[in-house]
Design a protein that fits this description.
homodimer, alpha/beta, Rossmann fold, three-stranded parallel sheet, two-stranded parallel sheet, 7 helices, 5 strands, 35% helix
Chain lengths: 174, 174
């Protein structure tokens, strides 16, 4: 969910500006760990524990329409490593219900580690989540992973590319 | 979790008595679906959506000590099909923290369907949860499954039997 469906980086920037008055430029976040990219990392950690943070996160462009289409052809599961932030559980559930109403509750998985999750494909922004996965792994581009090369995983930069891979004819997975 | 670690049947009986004055005998529930075993199934469905129901569920005898031991030798994940009852998410998290403090948040999985969960062994009280699992399947005895025979899955009647299987020498899985 985070950084793939939910624009957590955009939410960081917005909340950081509200808290400090400092407007961060996404370009300044490139290639840095999510929290350490900000002058006051402590604030970023605080946001993650603050009610409303996950609930009001913007949606990543293209995710709604492409996942709606994927959901017609594939057995889609939405997997979120949400367990570190217990207050996020109900917020993430409500967020999904609001922005992805076509996702049934049977398709939602909130976990700590993603090690016990199986499937044919996993799309994730963190190499640590992809490492143990047995199926095909796709690294979704986020500011924090932009400089990671030679991960061994295919990179997808946006939902248009996922659409091309999974939904258009004459391309890799179709 | 439910019917394996959390005594949901015991909780049903207790809440049903509080609501109606009728004390059900566990023997009367044997072999019946969880809700339909009670004269007023509507009440049982209501309990599942009532705050406090999952939070105050009793612990199944033996589960704490055996899971604590399993946790030393195996990579344990606690998987709960919690997504149908969103208010249960935070209650189940708090319940685990209270009764199983040795379980790290990274080991917790709350899902809808368990179809995307992988592992070497799954212990569950519902055949529907075991069906799609690729590893070894163990049916944990509960009132609602007591008459199910020839499921194709090995039955374990209590945590002592799980201890024997996974933790004692000279038995099947050791």
């Amino acid at each position: 969910m985070d950084h793939v469906m939910a624009d957590i980086t955009g939410q960081y920037i917005k909340w950081y500006q509200q808290a400090t008055g400092v407007e961060m430029n996404p370009a300044d976040l490139m290639g840095k760990p999510e929290d350490l990219a900000f002058p006051e990392p402590r604030l970023i950690r605080e946001f993650l524990h603050t009610p409303g943070f996950f609930l009001t996160a913007p949606v990543i462009p293209g995710s709604q329409s492409v996942i709606r289409e994927l959901n017609q052809l594939y057995e889609v599961f939405i997997v979120s490593a949400a367990m570190e932030f217990p207050q996020s559980l109900s917020e993430k559930y409500t967020w999904l219900l609001k922005h992805f109403p076509f996702i049934h509750w049977q398709q939602i998985i909130f976990c700590g580690s993603k090690k016990a999750v199986a499937g044919d494909y996993m799309i994730d922004d963190h190499v640590k989540n992809l490492t143990h996965f047995k199926g095909e792994k796709l690294l979704f581009t986020a500011t924090h992973n932009i400089n990671m090369h030679d991960t061994g995983y295919r990179r997808v930069n946006n939902w248009e590319e996922i659409k091309d891979l999974f939904l258009l004819k004459n391309v890799s997975y179709n």
